[in-house]
Amino acid sequence: MSVKLDPSLFCILVLLRCHFISGISEFTDPCTDHNGITDEQANNAFKDWPENLNLARVNKTHKCYVTCILIYYSIVDNYGKISLDKYFDNGSIDEYAFAPTLLRCRYEYRKETDLCEQIFGIFNCFKQEKLLSGKV
């Protein structure tokens, strides 16, 4: 059994495929240490997060370090997709209270193409919201 594909439909499918491929940035792994990150290292990176942090003053190495911690703990993947289902499921994070902040922060950094800049920016946005609301 063979299926004949309409040439115009085929062209549209090829164009869509090319658009999605070109829209996805090339995979770059910002994490050089694949041996793991200790809980102590992770906690130290997030301890005493400064209020009103000026992102322009944070060096890229630190942004990537924080991103790697979030990747290591499966909070985000190597493509920037945030996955908090396990935290929602076990009740650590109230999904309904968290969703508006997450959506706003993701929207704010939607055009950022650098993974470290994007993930650090989203995380900082969320932390700033928590600091302002006093729920750190």
From TrEMBL:
Alphabetical list of InterPro entries matching this protein: PBP/GOBP, PBP_GOBP_sf
Top-level taxonomic group: Eukaryota
Position of the signal peptide: 1-23
Entry annotated with the keyword Transmembrane helix: no
Molecular function per GO: odorant binding
Keyword annotations of the record: Signal
Transmembrane segments: none
One Pfam entry name: PBP_GOBP
CDD domains xrefs: PBP_GOBP
Name of the molecule in the record: Odorant-binding protein 57d
Species for this entry: Drosophila fuyamai
